[in-house]
Amino acid sequence: MPKLKLTYFDIHGGRAEPARLAMYIGGVAFEDDRISFQDFGAKRSGYPFKRVPLFVIDDVELSQGNTINRYVGKLAGLYPTDALQAAYCDEVMDAVEDIISQQGVTMFMKDEAQKKAAREALADGPIAIYLEHLQKMLDARGGEYFADGRLTVADLKVMVWVRGLRSGILDYVPTDLPDKLAPKLVEHLDRVLGHPKVDEYYARF
Amino acid sequence: MPKLKLTYFDIHGGRAEPARLAMYIGGVAFEDDRISFQDFGAKRSGYPFKRVPLFVIDDVELSQGNTINRYVGKLAGLYPTDALQAAYCDEVMDAVEDIISQQGVTMFMKDEAQKKAAREALADGPIAIYLEHLQKMLDARGGEYFADGRLTVADLKVMVWVRGLRSGILDYVPTDLPDKLAPKLVEHLDRVLGHPKVDEYYARF
User: pTM for this structure?
Assistant: First the structure.
């Protein structure tokens, strides 16, 4: 087994949380390297594309959240082997990455009025569209999980996003948006958080 | 063999071009459904997440450019089977998707001064960072291809992006940026365009 190390911010969310959870669920040992925003500022120029998460396999560097999710998903048994089910899993992860990138654009807006306008436009437009379409996809795939009829890294990715929306980390985006527009994604969130290993993880960390 | 249909704009670029090329190279028959921007406006609400590309496998819909690239890459023999090589391929595709999403934000800016400032900031910041780091990755992986020591969908994704930058479709982003910052990506572009099937494709279409 290679030595694995995952570097990301010290938060229960964002782009590395699905991979942390996947490795915990699958019993894959790794170094959980949590950095402060200050550390990030200091070390940024050394990270691939000047970003985190960064995953290191022995001495091989791997960047990009979903690339890491897919790789550790295979190690943890949480990624489908069938090509179409794998595509269902990828589609959901790519869609969530797309919407969190759109949210990300608003993170560094210094003008509060501009941020408010951008966040309200996101809530009325893309976030609503993504919530509704993800709910439709979940329905089409049996209603419980997004791919393979079981928990995969796609479910972890969606759960972390929906939980973030409801937590209020995005000012000007109503926290009840998922409950109003996509109640089945809220049920899905509870389903994922109720998984014995996920429940155990959040009790421990 | 299922019936395959790929819907996207009628341009030699963007998010569906790597999949079109991959299927052509691999001899995978598909319906190349090219729509006008007007068609898109009219049909938009019916597309998953209101976006294209859309790939249809018999009657199963698949959205998200890289999800489609990965699926057709497997059909065409242009996606690695080894997990680490697959991750190298994914990483490059995810990185390019990230930077084209950042470029995409500037597409709909109506204020020309705002667009100019945003594009110049992109050229000096993220586009430069991505060009330089992708060149470094190419070097680290042998200098010719991004994964598996051979042509994969990752090479097609990078080629389409670099060609787009050099074509001048992004006003205010200097077209000689790849040549100045990442000359090995320009050699890579020529290598991919020189592939017999890619060459044949652009002679025909």
Answer: 0.97
